[in-house]
C-alpha cells in the first residue's frame, strides 16, 4: 500500500513540476515580442548582411517605449519607429540620423546597416539568444544583447 501511495505522490509531483517548467519565461521567449526585445536594452550588432563589422566599430539597436528604435550606426546615432506583429518587424523609413563624418569604411558600413535595417521584415531569435533581423532578400542583421555593466 505504501508503494502505491509513493508512486501516486511521485506522479502528481512530477506533473506539477513539468507544468511549471512549461510556463517559465524561457519556454515562452522563443517568439519575438516587444517585451523580449528588451525595451531599453541594447543589442550589439555583430554581423551586417554576412559581412561582419569593422573591428573596434560599434553598431547597436535599442528598442524603446512607444515603438521607437535607435542606436549607433557606426559613426552616427540614428532613431526611428518600428512595428512588431508576430515575427513581422518593420522599421519606418522616416529614420533620423546625426551627420558626423567618419572614415569612408565606417560610412559605408553605416550605410549598409541602415539600408538593411529599413528593409527588415522578420525578427527571430537564433540558437544562441541572438536577435536575427532579416530582409525579404534573405540578408540578416545579427545582434546579441549587451552585457550588463558592472
How would you briefly describe this protein structure?
Helices cover 27% and strands 31% of the residues. By secondary structure, the chain is of the alpha+beta class.
Rounded to an integer, what's the Rg over CA atoms?
21 Å
Ends: how far apart?
56 Å
Percent strand equals: 25-35%
The number of helical segments is 3
Look at the structure and give the mean pLDDT: 81
Question: What proportion of the residues is helical, as a percent range?
Answer: 25-40%
Protein structure class = alpha+beta
Unreliable spans are 3-29
Order of helices and strands: HHEEEEEEHEEE
* Count of DSSP strands: 9
What general form does the structure show?
A: globular
Major sheet details:
9 strands, antiparallel
Describe the structure.
There is one protein chain. Strands 1, 2, 3, 4, 5, 6, 7, 8 and 9 form a nine-stranded antiparallel beta sheet that branches. The chain has 150 residues and is α+β, with helices and mostly antiparallel strands. It has helices spanning 2-22, 25-28, 104-119, and strands spanning 42-48, 60-64, 68-72, 77-85, 88-91, 96-97, 122-125, 131-134, 140-145. Mean pLDDT is 81; it is low at 3-29. A hairpin with a 2-residue loop joins strand 4 (77-85) and strand 5 (88-91). The radius of gyration is 21 Å and the shape is globular.
Spell out the key features of this protein.
alpha+beta; globular; single chain; 150 residues
Element layout with pairings:
Elements: H1 2-22, H2 25-28, E1 42-48, E2 60-64, E3 68-72, E4 77-85, E5 88-91, E6 96-97, H3 104-119, E7 122-125, E8 131-134, E9 140-145
Antiparallel strand pairs: 1-2, 1-9, 2-3, 3-4, 4-5, 4-6, 7-8, 8-9
Amino acid at each position: 500500500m505504501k508503494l502505491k501511495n509513493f508512486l501516486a505522490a511521485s506522479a502528481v509531483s512530477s506533473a506539477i513540476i513539468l507544468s511549471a517548467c512549461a510556463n517559465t519565461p524561457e519556454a515562452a521567449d522563443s517568439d519575438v515580442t516587444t517585451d523580449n526585445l528588451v525595451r531599453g536594452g541594447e543589442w550589439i550588432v555583430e554581423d551586417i548582411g554576412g559581412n561582419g563589422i569593422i573591428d573596434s566599430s560599434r553598431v547597436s539597436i535599442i528598442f524603446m517605449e512607444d515603438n521607437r528604435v535607435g542606436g549607433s550606426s557606426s559613426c552616427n546615432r540614428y532613431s526611428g519607429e518600428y512595428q512588431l506583429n508576430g515575427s513581422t518587424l518593420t522599421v519606418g523609413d522616416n529614420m533620423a540620423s546625426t551627420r558626423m563624418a567618419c572614415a569612408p569604411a565606417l560610412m559605408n558600413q553605416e550605410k549598409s546597416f541602415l539600408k538593411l535595417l529599413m528593409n527588415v521584415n522578420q525578427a527571430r531569435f537564433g540558437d544562441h539568444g541572438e536577435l536575427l533581423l532579416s530582409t525579404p532578400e534573405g540578408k540578416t542583421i545579427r545582434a546579441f544583447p549587451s552585457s550588463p555593466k558592472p
